[in-house]
Write a structure and sequence with these properties.
Blueprint: H1 11-20, H2 24-46, H3 54-58, H4 62-67, H5 72-83, H6 90-102, H7 105-117, H8 122-139, H9 141-148, H10 158-174, H11 176-188, H12 202-218, H13 220-228, H14 232-238, H15 252-262, H16 268-273, H17 277-294, H18 299-317, H19 326-339, H20 344-354, H21 360-386, H22 393-400, H23 406-416
Helix pairs in contact: 1-5, 2-6, 5-6, 5-8, 7-8, 8-9, 8-10, 9-10, 10-11, 10-12, 11-12, 12-13, 13-15, 17-18, 18-19, 18-20, 19-20, 20-21, 21-22, 22-23
């Protein structure tokens, strides 16, 4: 898959979104948790806690915390830790999010101006801008678009360009007529003209995805007509921009019709899977099964969606820095055996091969055991075809030698190349 089809690789932003929440429901939850924490502190004080205790001396009461100047460098470093593959300081980010919730539009704009004037590394500046613009987009989406539209094609900070699309989606929720009228006017004015030789505007596709995703809830026919106005070779990309990841309950059939009416059959499964992202996160595998039932998925669609969901779920359970657990793999395999029985073992191998964790030897041992326990060639082939094994030739060759199908064994051995011990 081309990188342009993926959401921006800002792991820090994704971590913040996952833990702190970018939706209103999650923001409300953080507010509630912050309020409860404040109440506990107040009760402790009322019970006789010394005002000269450690918290008071450190100036960390809620009132004092709200008045302290924000250390943007500290916040930025917490964000950039995620971009480097580590885990950011969630304590720092939780405190920051609590403050952001209390900031009004003017304060957020002032904070953005302050960050622009600071001497920060590009990495830290981009993370901070993304976080603040995202929060401002929740409160004042039209303001964000009018103030930062000139950065809609800013390749230096993809996080901000994605936040602008997010702001447009929020505006569509509040005032769809005004938002769509504004967007069409900006298209006519050339603000979304393509900057590439192939005539493709990634920024416009992100906005179109937000627009069509919102139209799907209120006017499915209009959503389909809007999609048809785009070049045929760009329609599939509309579903890869995140506009359908939080598919609303009750819109499943209309979403499936949107895909089936506008996308060639061979590409539909992957795109239908885009509608299961939040369902999988919130309700697990069974929510994906319910989705497939609601859209009357064909056998091929069911298999493709199940594959996408399995890989996505396993990556969530075993992010970079953590090892995949056998019980999680067994749960995935059991579900795949119901939804995609003919490909369950192959998909399991592919999912294990696709992980970004560093425990390649451990995963290889797991694949070998799965093969011996009934997965046979399929789990081995899936793992080798989908794994990043060019630097692990000895290990890959060992697994390939265990494949019983002579043709597949030779194909993979040729692809893997000579083992490292044979190169010296």
């Amino acid at each position: 898959m081309k990188t342009r089809h993926l959401l921006p690789p800002l792991l820090a932003v994704l971590v913040v979104g996952l833990w702190l929440g970018s939706t209103q429901a999650r923001l409300k939850r953080v507010q509630t948790e912050t309020k409860l924490l404040q109440e506990r502190i107040e009760k402790k004080a009322q019970a006789g806690a010394s005002p000269h205790g450690a918290d008071a001396q450190a100036g960390t009461t809620p009132a004092a915390e709200a008045k302290k100047p924000i250390d943007w460098k500290e916040i930025g470093e917490a964000l950039s830790a995620g971009q480097r593959g580590g885990m950011p300081d969630l304590r720092v980010l939780m405190k920051m999010q609590a403050r952001l919730l209390e900031m009004d539009r003017d304060e957020l704009v002032a904070a953005l101006d302050e960050i622009a004037a600071l001497d920060l590394s590009p990495e830290i500046r981009q993370g901070l801008e993304q976080m603040l613009v995202s929060n401002l987009a929740e409160k004042e989406p039209q303001l964000v678009l009018e103030r930062y539209l000139d950065r809609v094609n800013d390749s230096r900070n993809m996080g901000v360009t994605w936040s602008l699309a997010q702001a447009f989606g929020r505006w569509m929720e509040k005032d769809p007529t005004a938002a769509q009228t504004w967007f069409d006017a900006r298209i006519a004015a050339g603000d979304f003209d393509s900057k590439s030789l192939d005539g493709r505007s990634d920024a416009r596709l992100r906005f179109e995805s937000a627009l069509i995703g919102k139209l799907l809830k209120s006017d499915p026919a209009a959503a389909s007509e809007r999609l048809k106005t785009l070049p045929e070779d760009q329609r599939a990309d509309i579903f890869r921009q995140g506009g359908f990841s939080t598919l609303a309950d009750g819109t499943e059939k209309d979403f499936a019709a949107l895909v089936r009416d506008n996308i060639p059959e061979g590409e539909r499964g992957e795109l239908l899977a885009q509608g299961t992202t939040m369902k999988l996160h919130q309700g697990g595998y069974e929510s994906v099964s319910a989705f497939l039932d609601k859209i009357d998925a064909t056998a091929g669609e069911r298999q493709d969606v199940a594959k996408h969901a399995a890989i996505q779920k396993l990556r969530t359970l075993a992010p970079p820095g953590q090892e995949v657990k056998r019980r999680d793999v067994d749960e995935m395999l059991a579900w795949l055996s119901k939804e995609a029985p003919e490909k369950a073992d192959r998909i399991t191998g592919e999912a294990l091969g696709s992980l970004w964790t560093n425990d390649i030897e451990r995963r290889a041992d797991m694949v070998e055991k799965l093969s011996e326990e009934g997965g046979g060639d399929e789990v081995l082939i899936g793992f080798l075809d989908n794994g990043r094994l060019h630097q692990q030739r000895d290990l890959a060759q060992r697994l390939a030698e265990k494949i019983q199908d002579a043709g597949e064994r030779e194909r993979l051995l040729k692809r893997i190349g000579p083992a490292e011990t044979e190169q010296h």
